[in-house]
Amino acid sequence: MSWVVEVDHDLEKMGDASTGMEPLKKKSIYRVPSFIANLNKEVYSPHAVSFGPYHHKEVYSPRAVSFGPYHHGEAHLEPMECHKKRSLLHFLKNRASFPLKLKDILDSFAQVEEELKDSYDSLDPKWQSDSSDKEGFLKLMIIDGCFMLEIFRAAIKTPDDYHSDDPIFSKHGKLNIMPFIKRDMLMLENQLPMLVLDKLLAISKNGDESINELIHKFCNPDSRDIPPPTGKCLHVLDMFRKSLFMKSTATTPMTGTSAGSDASKKDKHRDELIPITRSATELNEAGVRFKRIKKSPSINDISFKGGVLSLPTFVIDDTTKSTFLNMIAFEHCHVSAGHEVASYIWFMDNLIDTSSDVRFLQGKRIVQNLIGSDKGAANLFNTISNDLTIDPESKLGSVNLKMSSYCERRRNRWRANLIHTYFTNPWTLISVVAAGVLFGLTIAQTAYGALQYYQG
After folding, report:
1. Of 140, 132, 146, 47, which Cα lies nearest the Cα of 100?
2. How confident is the model at residue 295 (pLDDT cuts 50, 70, 90)?
3. Which pLDDT score is estimated for 302?
4. What integer best gives the mean pLDDT of the chain?
5. Counted domains in the chain
């Protein structure tokens, strides 16, 4: 009967639908669920630097540096710890806008310690306040936070308070080390709560520059004419993800009813199966024209109008797989994150089916392939899109539906079938042309014979 009593007690305490949701809303830095991580184990663990507590002496680890508790303490990341400590000293000596002692920072962080811990989905007991090292968690947050801010600044402009031969904070470090740090910084398990960076930035000389601006300049150095997200971001990965949706002045938000009239209208096809987008070469055969959006890298600007599919350039490099899978994992774990990146990758995977699609899109300058092999680029999309689907009520869902309807028009189906059957193979094309010429000559000969007959 104890179970019955327990359930009855829980029923009495049960409130409305929001009961028990508050602790969940505080979470923002997650362990990647095993059923997701097992598909691509190597992309969820930092290889250079760990931030935070999640990777403390675990098998799968960062390549260069850890941030936060999840990856802290792994043997192959230890060499970076001395550079973190140096960055702390430089921050305290050269960055503060007023005389400040480390104890003052520690006391300030102690006031938000529980809030910081609540950000982590799975925190090891060793980081709790009742452990032997009571200041361990706050020490980790401060050191990693200072290091991250120093990395941002050094990437934007080489600092003058480090030696020119510094292994990290120099031109050498910017070219050879920071690309690995950036990759690790965009991993879900390697995040710091944005509150850490906000508090440290507030006491620095450059406190008038928002943390969103610093992160945006670091992650998107070639898109400085595109403003950073202005709303609240949870961590670096969340900020980078939101920067992908920063729209040009002519575009509209990507999800929900604000995505434009096409996304908000009830469509009779919404309850049917989501139409699969044809590959780029198949769409081209059906008469779809492709246009590169020159001024905006935003995926929010993707559109289909008048038979023209407009897309921003997609750069494929060695970090593409890791970065996008970690953003998708965040969308999966964080309920209010949305589904935009997963929808985008689903959409692009349908466009890119084979190496022929990669070559075609490269010709249109919509894809920039920096990994060399066209087949490898196609396989990359086929891999990272596993188990993904598109949000039918998003702007991309509307674009997908429009393209499907366009391709199903009779004349476009006939055109696609004609091109695919007779014009993809040069020998088939030659045969068709030869047959046409022969048919024309036969008609001419027949007409000439008939004319001679009547004239004779």
Report:
1. 146
2. confident
3. 94
4. 80
5. 3
Mark whether 346 and 197 lie in a shared domain: no
Whether 140 and 212 map to the same domain: the answer is: yes
Determine, yes or no, domain membership for 26: no
Asked if 399 contacts 307 with a C-beta cutoff of 8 angstroms, the reply is no
Can you give the pLDDT at residue 261?
Answer: 40
Q: Is the pLDDT of residue 66 over 90?
A: no
Same domain for 98 and 237, yes or no, is yes
Helices (H), 287-339: 320-333
Quickly count: other Cβ atoms within 10 Å of residue 419's Cβ.
16
Q: Is residue 12 part of a domain?
A: no
Q: Look-up: residue for tokens 């539906």?
A: 401
The β-bridge partners of 157 are none
Residues 267 and 220 in one domain: no
pLDDT (tens digit, 9 = 90+) per residue, 13-55? 656 555 555 666 778 888 877 767 766 766 767 766 666 666 4
DSSP state letters, 202-242: HTBTTTTS-HHHHHHHHH-TT-TTSPPP-S--SSHHHHHHH
Q: Please, which residues bridge with residue 70 across strands? A: 55
How confident is the model at residue 346, as a pLDDT? Answer: 94
Question: Which amino acid type is present at position 230?
Answer: T
Q: C-alpha distances in angstroms, 330 versus 215, 370, 435?
A: 18, 26, 58
CA–CA distance, 437 with 244 (Å, rounded to integer): 53
User: Which residues is 120 bridged to in the sheet?
Assistant: 29
Q: How far apart are CA 296 and CA 299, in angstroms?
A: 8
